[in-house]
Amino acid sequence: MGYAVIPLPSPRNFLKKKTRKVQRPYVDKQKLQTEPRAPLPPSKVQKINKEDKTEEKNFRKENILKAVRAVPKQPVPKIADTKDGHKLLLEPSGLQPHHIFRKGFGKTPKYIKDRLKVIEERDKEVRELLNKKKAPLRYVTEDERMLMLKGLKKNWDELQKEFQLLPMVTDTVPKIKRKTNLEKRLKELEKDIDLIERNPLIYVSAEE
């Protein structure tokens, strides 16, 4: 059933570099015979004739022209708001006007015009309706105006005399009420007299 004791290899007989040769299978390399391919069509670059070729770009000349024609960069406007030189941008600071240069600045917006137009039409309809309900007006002649003015002044004279006859001391409630009533009537008459004197043209309702 084999060796009782397996003989060990000698330490001197160790595997050395490049001493083991591995026999690899032989491969016969054969080139396949194929038909020659057609040549590639000429590219677009090759089709361009020498006469059609543009001149080489002169970068130096173009850079000089670009530098001459370039608009110089403007510095950002700033302001100093303190004595220590603290700076702020001018545009967002609010010190430079912007809104007044807008296209629609100072003009009434369209939606407000539309609302005013609707309100005006509504008022016109209300006035027309009221004019239909109200009686037409008539002009007060000069004689009628003078007659009214004369009557108002006469009433004022009578109330003034009555007011002057009041006692100097108004120590009771009836005296106070009477004096207050006379003062109120005198002020109303003075207001009516002044209104008629300042307005020579007066119109009243035809029913009056």
TrEMBL record:
InterPro entries from the UniProt entry: Enkurin_dom (IPR027012), Enkurin_domain-protein (IPR052102)
Primary localisation category: other
Biased composition (Basic and acidic residues): 48-57
Subcellular location as annotated: Cell projection, Cilium; Cytoplasm, Cytoskeleton
Gene Ontology molecular function, alphabetical: calmodulin binding
Pfam family, one: Enkurin
Spans annotated as Disordered: 15-57
Residue ranges annotated for the Enkurin domain, each copy included: 110-204
Parts of the chain that traverse the membrane: none
Cellular component, GO annotation: acrosomal vesicle; axonemal microtubule
Keywords of the record: Cell projection, Cytoplasm, Cytoskeleton
Name this polypeptide is given: Enkurin domain-containing protein
Annotated source species: Clastoptera arizonana (Arizona spittle bug)
Phylogenetic placement of the source organism: Eukaryota, Metazoa, Ecdysozoa, Arthropoda, Hexapoda
